[in-house]
Amino acid sequence: MRHQVFGKKLNRDIKERKSLFKNLVSGLVDKGKIVTTEAKAKALKPLVDKLVSIAKKGTLASKRQLLAFFQRREVVNKLEDTIAPAFKDRQSGFTRIIKKGERLGDGAKEAVMEWVDLPARPAGGPAGRQGKIEVAPKIEKPEEKAKVQNDKK
Predict the structure, then answer these.
(1) pTM of the model as a whole
(2) Does residue 126 lie in a domain region?
(3) Can you say whether the dihedral through the CA atoms of 78, 31, 92, 67 is positive or negative?
(4) What letter does residue 103 receive in the DSSP assignment?
(5) Residue 59: which CATH number?
(6) Alpha helices in 32-134 (DSSP H)
(7) CA of 92: how far to CAs of 16, 79, 86, 87, in Å?
(8) Mind listing the pLDDT tens digit for each residue in 50-88?
(9) How many Cα atoms within 13 Å fall on the side-chain side of residue 89?
(10) Staple 111 to which of 20, 38, 50, 129, CB 3.0 to 4.6 Å?
(11) Sign, Cα dihedral of 88, 92, 98, 103
């Protein structure tokens, strides 16, 4: 019987598991979605729900709780300023898990974890870059032109 079992161990001790979850949640907050294994995504979902619920409170105590977990002020600010207000009407279920398939290297089942109601980031890549990067046309050197003409003869 599984009395008082907290969740999945993921073949790690408590420090490794806490570090893994902190990094995965930080990546989710920073990038909007993460690609990981199904088991990790399923184990992470309740933690993300709890952290977003804490961020929705908006109190000083809740900010300190989030800082104690993340230890990165940028992540806490983004969670409180952009993500939590987007979920003000939603009680739980802030993320979705989309099954992706098996990884080629080891055959592990992969999944994409992303926010449910947040608008997607623009397709321009990182936030600072807008539009496509133009590639300069290739300029042929005189030596290459002569070499091409000699080959045709």
Answers:
(1) 0.75
(2) no
(3) negative
(4) -
(5) 3.90.1030.10
(6) 38-57, 60-70, 73-78, 84-86
(7) 27, 15, 12, 9
(8) 999 999 999 999 999 999 999 999 999 999 999 999 999
(9) 4
(10) 38
(11) positive
